[in-house]
Specification:
The complex is a heterodimer.
Chain A lengths: L2 E14 L1 H4 L1 H9 L12 E15 L3 E5 L6 H8 L7 E7 L2 E4 L12 H11 L4 H6 L1 H8 L14 H12 L6 E5 L7 H17 L2 E5 L3 H7 L2 E6 L2 E7 H20 L1
Parallel strand pairs in A: 3-7, 3-8, 5-6, 6-7
Antiparallel strand pairs in A: 1-2, 1-4, 8-9
Chain B lengths: L1 H15 L1 H15 L8 H21 L4 H26 L1 H4 L1 H4 L7 H19 L1 H8 L11 H25 L3 H15 L6 H4 L4 H4 L2 H13 L6 H25 L3 H4 L1
Helix pairs in contact in B: 1-7, 1-14, 2-7, 3-4, 3-7, 4-7, 4-8, 4-9, 4-10, 4-13, 7-9, 9-13, 9-14, 13-14
Classes of the chains: A alpha/beta, B mainly alpha.
Keywords (chain A): ATP-binding, Nucleotide-binding, Transport
GO molecular function, one term (chain A): ATP hydrolysis activity
Protein name (chain A): ABC transporter ATP-binding protein
């Protein structure tokens, strides 16, 4: 049973530069007191990527995430994928999670396509035998044919995407997290990719989708979160939220033009 | 209490994802030699030629018989390569796996085990030099050699916490891997790898204060048909216990922060 509960979950990202990371500074600073996480140092910039998010999601929900660049969509997805533990507040996520944030994770450029299918499959939590069992499905879907025998460094970025997408969507997690992966590749592939994604989403208990393609959000999600500045501005049925979001965007555009 | 549980869960989670670190460790080695004809054999060839070259030079400098010096040097160099590799690469464990860490919720200990796997495999390749040298030099072999196995376990227990601790520190402070490299290089010269402990004097402070000397001795001595001293075992064991306690404390406090440091 998949379930997501966030209570006042915040994420503060400390961006270190070489000065901020320098050991010398730290030792000097330690001499006058402070902890490893002390960020009063001016060379460390703190970004409040998520600010006190409260969220309750239960099995069966399909949730869209909208907002401008830097609104906190990807950070929220990372919290949901158990990659970022909230720096304050709580996040309880039950169920097997699969994040499709960067499709090429765990790919090795010197290995062949076939080897990478197994590599990626194991990274996604399969046994080697199970990962090898993915091969026929990936072969058929990716249409890479003989290329699967070549090292992936010889692939074009489109081919790499086909392979990564085919493997990543072959597993069946309880919670699926998607970041801007709809509409990938060339037109014919994009269509098939969407069908395949549909299959994956249908079988998952919970899905989160962050996208700037408003149509995909309307099509896939019943509930939508609108994020701005790390906060949830609006949380409700997709149509309501999208209408508000789109009219706000239109108003902003008009203001700029006028 | 809850946090101590979390630290233990990190360790348990790391071990249970054995499929992943075993596979990544193997593919790390395979990748390094992917396009070379002799592949992984290169590791062994380069180490063997270094041992024979150094054996010729240093047996003369130290006025030692080649037949007794070569087994000593070969075991020293091969084992030191393993120890140094685990420490140096351990410090980079999180930094080199950053793209994976930022996308999955695997236990951080997985990446430490990846580095250890890679180094154990390299060590296994280089290890074939040792029986060859022992046979060629006609060194005595007895049941004492079996003590090599507990020695190796002790060494791994130590190297794993060292790698873990350094990996955490290095993720936060990027100067640490550089510092570690120089320290390990210096340690090579002050640890009895090339010279025999008694050449320095058995109670020389450099030997007594150098924990790596004890670590090296518990794995190397059995191969040379010597029973390691009780003191070496005590130091290696004590270091493993204290080191893991210290490391678990760091894991408990900072494990959740690591992903934000990458």
């Amino acid at each position: 049973m998949a379930q997501v509960t966030l209570k006042n979950a915040s994420v503060e990202l400390a961006i270190y530069n070489s000065r901020g990371r320098g050991l010398k500074n730290e030792i000097l600073r330690r001499a006058v007191g402070g902890s490893l996480e002390d960020t009063r140092d001016r060379s460390v910039t703190v970004v409040h990527a998520l600010d006190a998010i409260n969220l309750e999601v239960s099995s069966g929900e399909r949730i869209g995430l909208i907002g401008h660049n830097g609104a906190g969509k990807t950070t929220l997805l990372r919290v949901l994928g158990r990659i970022y533990p909230p720096t304050s507040g709580e996040a309880t996520i039950t169920g097997r999670v699969s994040s499709l944030i960067d499709l090429s994770m765990g790919m090795d450029s010197e290995s062949t396509g076939y080897e990478n299918i197994v590599l990626r499959g194991v990274m996604l939590g399969l046994t080697r035998t199970q990962a090898r069992a993915l091969i026929p499905d990936v072969e058929e879907f990716s249409e890479l044919g003989e290329y699967l025998n070549l090292p992936v460094r010889a692939y074009s970025s489109g081919m790499l995407l086909r392979l990564a997408f085919a493997v990543s969507t072959a597993v069946r997690p309880d919670i699926v997290i998607l970041d801007e992966v709809i509409g990938v590749g060339d037109a014919s592939f994009a269509q098939r990719a969407e069908q395949r994604l549909h299959g994956m989403i249908d079988k998952a208990e919970i899905m989160f989708l962050a996208s700037h393609a408003n149509n995909s959000i309307r099509r896939f999600c019943q509930r939508t979160l609108w994020l701005a500045g790390g906060k949830i501005v609006m949380d409700g049925p997709t149509d309501e939220v999208m209408d508000k979001y789109e009219s706000a965007n239109a108003a902003a555009a008009q203001e700029q033009a006028g | 209490m809850r946090e101590t549980g979390q630290a233990m869960a990190e360790i348990a989670g790391g071990i249970s994802s054995w499929r992943i670190w075993w596979m990544l460790g193997q593919s790390d080695i395979a990748r390094r030699y992917k396009r070379s004809r002799l592949g992984q054999i290169w590791m062994t060839i380069s180490m063997a030629s270094m041992i024979f070259g150094m054996g010729l030079v240093y047996s003369t400098i130290f006025k030692q018989e080649l037949g007794s010096y070569l087994p000593f040097l070969a075991t020293g160099i091969v084992l030191w390569g393993f120890i140094a590799g685990c420490i140096n690469e351990g410090a980079m464990a999180f930094i080199e796996s950053d793209s994976i860490i930022r996308q999955t919720d695997l236990s951080k200990f997985t990446y430490i085990l990846r580095v250890l796997t890679r180094n154990v495999l390299t060590f296994a390749h280089n290890f074939v030099i040792i029986p060859m040298v022992l046979l060629i030099c006609g060194s005595p072999i007895s049941w004492t050699i079996l003590l090599f196995l507990p020695g190796l376990v002790l060494a791994l227990l130590n190297l794993s916490w060292i790698a873990y601790l350094l990996a955490i520190l290095s993720a936060r402070f990027r100067d640490i891997p550089q510092i570690i490299q120089s320290v390990v290089q210096i340690a090579f010269f002050i640890t009895p790898v090339m010279f025999r402990p008694h050449q320095l004097g058995a109670d020389h402070p450099l030997l007594l204060l150098n924990p790596l000397a004890a670590l090296l001795s518990v794995i190397r001595d059995p191969l040379l048909d010597i029973v390691p001293t009780a003191a070496s075992y005590a130091i290696a064991l004590g270091m493993a216990v204290l080191g893991w306690l210290l490391t678990l404390n760091f894991v408990r406090r900072y494990s959740r922060r690591i992903v934000y440091w990458l």
